[in-house]
């Protein structure tokens, strides 16, 4: 058995971990950093740059440097989230043939799974260099609120990167695995994960080597970058007030502002005030202009307070799903760089009535958890078991355009659930089963996963026939739905496959193409 | 091993199947007692007629049950013993189960002799629901990437999936939420499919998944206060109902399950009858969820069966079959319904075929060949040996020409059913010819011409065959 690695494929930074001698280890990259920026660039002379190399030149090569592509993966081009990225990102986002957002760098267009794959391949390479052997198996993490398409695209990215993705698991779940590793106590824990791009909250229960996810919730579009953006907007406004120059259309200036804002934000976690100094940020007829100002922690907190409040609302709803009160949580684990901010820590402490746990490194804990899950799946000695859950509710469309749930979100998988339905008209001979995923009570607002017709129902008054609809999710997350007429025994079923924004042919083409760039350790 | 006396008194011991009593080392007195055991006489009576002092009878019987000489199949058998009688060889297992369960005051059952050695005491206490059902040894497969012992446990546990939720989790009926969760966690460690990730487990993979889903269901229903309250309420109602009126023989299984008192409660009954009866009300949620469902389903089954009978009398065969099928779906163990179903279904099939054939001929009149073929085919599902339908279907399938294989099948069956009809042989010959099977085609076409020498079409087809 080769080694299995755990990869935290983050919006802003990624991290890779492996179990060595029974202990989870975070693998540093060549530069000695334990996290690698999730950035990819093509330099003016056509070189492909990943990670720190890409980040270092991002300011001067803003149009050809991709970051935060995780925000685009698995979404439709017209989704509001994509529109927001298009507004803010200096790189160009174009509409792909499958209505998916793709990134144009020079004359080459990249799909989002392709860009994720480039990051994943870099993480794979870092691990291989460290281990001195080829790596194939990996567990990759995604935000808890990623839908099936986003998960499938992440899986595709792994495939393109030459990885065998054993599982996609949720980031907060991974954090809980890392926290629970080697612990014998029974505890209920909450994982508050405020990363660069996403916010996740999960409530889990640990007991004798089993980890059960009780509830999970989150927002895939809320994270540290929103803090940065608020700060950038604030800086832009102040600069415009002072100098009368709008920097919004200047890609280079924006990138510098973004870097400075991020740095100031981090500084303010330690200090009460930070200085932002960006000489020659612009120039006009009157000569060069410099941005130089003082930022207080209070100002920053004022700018982002509502975002933090927003996360607390999600936490409360998640606790509700878990059927627990805040004070029943034994331990709060913080994940994600943004949780270093005192405002966040205080807000969380206030909500739960206890200080968060300090023992884990918020940047590394997710990758560690992924490695632990990989090991738990493959190792002979099964000392840890994760009872994972389905992230979104599944059900069917019923009379009047309603959505009837058969499997609630946060249900442990594998699972089978059935319900009896009936007809709505006299002598109705067929029913259409529309399989939906989502949280809205309106069928139309949820995602349609598939549909089929059960015909040959014997003529009867409405409400008399009994049609049993069953949902089945297997251990690999594959959903099958069947409908059976109890009177005739007639049955129809479908398997609902997660759809990707890429076709199999496209994935293969990308894999073939990428072999040109591939550097691998000789096995 | 002293089971609660009150519970035991009504037990009916029987010789374990496949056991040769002659080979047991018995004293004459013991031999006499053994000879009184006929599978009908309850324990209580054996005390009086066994030829030994009552205490001696108790001691002997208890020992034999423990040794697997006897199986207890009484009305008051513990839940774990409500298995079909054990097969020879597995008898010891069942017997051990009966006594242990009776003594343990919970639905926990004894490990079969073939189980892995018991874990250390602490772990054993936490380990719920050890498995003990006899298994089909032929299903074991040493070539799988799964220890045979593990396979044994999976098979044994799979057999128990019909048990009430508490028993399934191996917790006492009054277990609190924490105990339920602990049991669920422990069982998950053994039966969650991730435990066998990427291993070649053959047919055991789906078994494990099925087991896990059921364990999960038990855990979820017992953990949710609403469903659990419902389960307990239903159990109380059920028990009261059953104590007033004994159930009809059809629901013997229900009766057996209901009559199973918790041995602990039974022991208390000995001391204080009133206290015990109060406790009885609180305990039997063990089977409650099941029982309530069962009762509802049986009631539904009865209703459907009745309307099926009404429809049958009115000669509405299809409707009757539909209703009875529903009745079976709700009460699959009811033999009476099943027996009735055979007749009804035959009638219904005939009726349905008649309707379809009528429609098919209608379509034929309208020159709608495809639709007619579809209807003939559907009719053949209900009446596969209708010669005319086979012949017409063969002809139509041949003329439409999309699926010669199907055409051939119908043609062959038509000829089997009516070998002396020229048209059948001709059609089959033409089908063979179209399929390129010249020798077969020749044989059939010649047969057709023997039966009807004037058939020009057959002659032409035969000539065409020669040209090719």
Question: Could you describe the 3D structure shown?
Answer:
The complex is a heterodimer of chains A (523) and B (468). Chain A is of the alpha+beta class. Chain A has 3 domains: 4-221 and 328-388, Nucleotidyltransferase, domain 5; 224-301, ATPase, substrate binding domain, subdomain 4 (Actin, Chain A, domain 4, Alpha-Beta Complex), CATH 3.90.640.10; 394-496, Substrate Binding Domain Of DNAk, Chain A, domain 1, CATH 2.60.34. Helices cover 30% and strands 32% of the residues of chain A. Chain A is built from 11 helices and 27 strands. In chain A, β20 and β21 form a beta hairpin. Chain B has 468 residues and is mainly α. Helices cover 65% and strands 1% of the residues of chain B. Chain B has 23 helices and 2 strands. Chain B has helices at residues 5-9, 28-36, 43-49, 54-67, 91-104, 121-126, 148-159, 165-169, 177-191, 204-223, 225-244, 252-258, 263-271, 273-282, 288-313, 317-330, 335-365, 369-382, 387-400, 404-417, 422-435, 438-451, 456-467; strands at residues 13-15, 70-72. In chain B, strands 1-2 form a two-stranded antiparallel sheet. Chain B is elongated and about 95 Å long. Mean pLDDT of chain B is 72; it is low at 74-131 and 245-287. The chains are: A alpha+beta (523), B mainly alpha (468). The A-B interface holds A 166, 205, 207-210, 212, 376-378, 382, 385-387, 412, 414-416, 458, 466, 474-475, 486-489 and B 126, 181-182, 185-186, 188-189, 192-195, 197-198, 209, 212-213, 216, 318-319, 322-323, 325-326, 329-330.
Keywords:
heterodimer; A: 523 residues; alpha+beta; Nucleotidyltransferase, domain 5; Actin, Chain A, domain 4; Substrate Binding Domain Of DNAk, Chain A, domain 1; 3 domains; six-stranded mixed sheet; five-stranded mixed sheet; 11 helices; 27 strands; B: 468 residues; mainly alpha; Outer Surface Protein A, domain 3; Serine Threonine Protein Phosphatase 5, Tetratricopeptide repeat; 23 helices; elongated
């Amino acid at each position: 058995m080769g080694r299995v690695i755990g990869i935290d494929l983050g919006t802003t930074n990624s991290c890779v971990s492996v179990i060595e001698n029974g202990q989870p280890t975070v693998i540093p990259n060549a530069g000695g950093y334990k996290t690698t920026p999730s950035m990819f660039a093509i330099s003016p002379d056509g070189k492909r740059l990943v990670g720190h190399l890409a980040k270092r030149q991002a300011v001067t090569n803003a149009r050809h440097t991709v970051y935060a592509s995780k925000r685009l993966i698995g979404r439709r081009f017209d989704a509001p989230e994509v529109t927001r990225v298009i507004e803010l990102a200096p790189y160009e986002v174009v509409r792909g043939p499958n209505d998916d957002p793709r990134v144009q760098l020079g004359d080459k267009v990249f799909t989002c799974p392709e860009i994720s794959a480039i990051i994943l391949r870099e993480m794979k390479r870092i691990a291989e260099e460290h281990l001195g052997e080829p790596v194939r198996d990996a567990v990759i993490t995604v935000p808890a609120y990623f839908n099936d398409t986003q998960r499938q695209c992440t899986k595709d990215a792994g495939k393109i990167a030459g990885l065998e993705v054993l599982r996609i698991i949720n980031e907060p779940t991974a954090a809980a695995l890392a926290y629970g590793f080697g612990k014998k106590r029974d505890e209920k824990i909450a994982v508050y994960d405020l990363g660069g791009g996403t916010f996740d909250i999960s409530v889990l229960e640990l007991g004798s080597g089993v980890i059960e996810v009780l509830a999970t919730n989150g927002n895939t579009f809320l994270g540290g970058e929103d803090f940065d953006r608020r700060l950038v907007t604030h800086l832009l406004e102040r600069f415009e007030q002072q100098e009368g120059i709008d920097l919004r259309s200047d890609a280079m200036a924006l990138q510098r502002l973004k870097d400075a804002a991020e740095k100031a934000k981090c500084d303010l976690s330690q200090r009460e005030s930070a200085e932002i100094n960006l000489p020659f940020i612009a120039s006009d007829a009157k000569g060069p202009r410099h941005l130089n100002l003082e930022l207080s922690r209070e100002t920053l907190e004022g700018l982002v307070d509502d975002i933090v409040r927003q996360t607390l609302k999600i936490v409360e709803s998640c606790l509700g799903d878990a059927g627990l009160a805040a004070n029943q949580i034994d331990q709060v684990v913080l994940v994600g760089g943004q949780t270093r901010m005192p405002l966040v820590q205080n807000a969380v402490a206030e909500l739960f009535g206890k200080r968060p746990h300090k023992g884990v490194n918020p940047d590394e804990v997710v990758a560690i958890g992924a490695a632990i899950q990989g090991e738990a799946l493959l190792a002979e000695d099964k000392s840890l078991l994760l009872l994972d859950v389905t992230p979104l509710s599944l059900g069917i469309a019923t009379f009047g355009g309603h959505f009837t749930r058969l499997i609630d979100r946060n249900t442990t998988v594998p699972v089978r659930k059935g319900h009896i339905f009936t007809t709505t008209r006299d002598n109705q001979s067929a029913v259409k089963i529309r399989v939906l995923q989502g949280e809205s009570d309106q069928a139309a607002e949820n995602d349609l996963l598939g549909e089929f017709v059960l015909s040959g129902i014997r003529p009867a008054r409405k409400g008399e026939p009994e049609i049993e609809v069953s949902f089945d999710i297997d251990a690999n997350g594959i959903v099958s739905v069947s409908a059976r007429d109890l009177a005739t025994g007639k049955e129809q079923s479908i398997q609902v496959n997660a759809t990707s924004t890429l076709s199999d042919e496209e994935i293969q083409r990308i894999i073939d193409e990428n072999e040109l760039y591939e550097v691998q350790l000789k096995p | 091993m002293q089971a609660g006396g009150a519970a035991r008194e009504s037990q009916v011991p029987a010789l374990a199947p496949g056991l040769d009593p002659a080979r047991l080392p018995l004293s004459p007195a013991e031999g006499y007692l053994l000879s009184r055991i006929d599978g009908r006489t309850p324990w209580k009576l054996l005390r009086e007629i066994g030829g030994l002092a009552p205490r001696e009878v108790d001691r002997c019987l208890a020992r034999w049950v423990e040794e697997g000489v006897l199986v207890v199949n009484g009305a008051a058998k513990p839940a774990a013993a409500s298995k079909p009688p054990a097969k020879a060889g597995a008898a010891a297992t069942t017997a051990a189960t009966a006594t242990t369960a009776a003594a343990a005051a919970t639905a926990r059952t004894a490990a079969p002799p073939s189980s892995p050695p018991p874990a250390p005491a602490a772990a054993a206490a936490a380990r719920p629901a050890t498995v003990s059902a006899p298994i089909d040894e032929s299903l074991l497969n040493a070539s799988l990437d799964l220890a045979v012992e593990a396979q044994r446990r999976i098979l044994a546990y799979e057999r128990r999936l019909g048990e009430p939720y508490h028993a399934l989790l191996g917790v006492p009926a009054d277990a609190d939420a924490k105990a339920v969760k602990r049991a669920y966690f422990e069982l998950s460690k053994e039966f969650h499919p991730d435990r066998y990730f990427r291993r070649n487990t053959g047919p055991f993979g789906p078994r494990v998944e099925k087991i896990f889903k059921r364990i999960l269901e038990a855990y979820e229903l017992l953990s949710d206060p609403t469903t659990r309250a419902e389960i307990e309420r239903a159990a109380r109602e059920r028990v009261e109902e059953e104590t007033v009126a004994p159930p009809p023989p059809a629901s013997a299984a229900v009766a057996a399950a209901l009559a199973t008192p918790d041995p602990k409660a039974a022991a208390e009954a000995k001391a204080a009858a009133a206290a015990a009866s109060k406790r009885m009300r609180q305990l039997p949620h063990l089977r409650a969820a099941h029982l309530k469902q069962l009762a509802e389903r049986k009631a539904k089954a009865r209703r459907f069966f009745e309307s099926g009978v009404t429809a049958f009398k009115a000669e509405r065969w299809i409707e009757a079959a539909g209703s009875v099928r529903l009745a079976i779906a709700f009460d699959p163990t009811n033999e009476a319904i099943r027996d009735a179903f055979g007749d009804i279904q035959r009638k219904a099939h005939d009726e349905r075929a008649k309707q379809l054939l009528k429609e098919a001929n209608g379509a034929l009149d309208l020159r709608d060949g495809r639709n007619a073929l579809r209807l003939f085919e559907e009719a053949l599902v209900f009446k596969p040996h209708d010669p005319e339908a086979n012949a017409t279907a063969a002809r139509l399938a041949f003329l439409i020409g999309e699926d010669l294989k199907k055409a051939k099948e119908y043609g062959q069956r038509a000829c089997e059913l009516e070998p002396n009809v020229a048209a059948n042989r001709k059609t089959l010959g033409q089908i063979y010819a179209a399929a390129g099977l010249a020798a077969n085609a020749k044989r059939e076409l010649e047969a057709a011409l023997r039966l009807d020498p004037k058939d020009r079409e057959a002659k032409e087809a035969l000539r065409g065959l020669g040209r090719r």
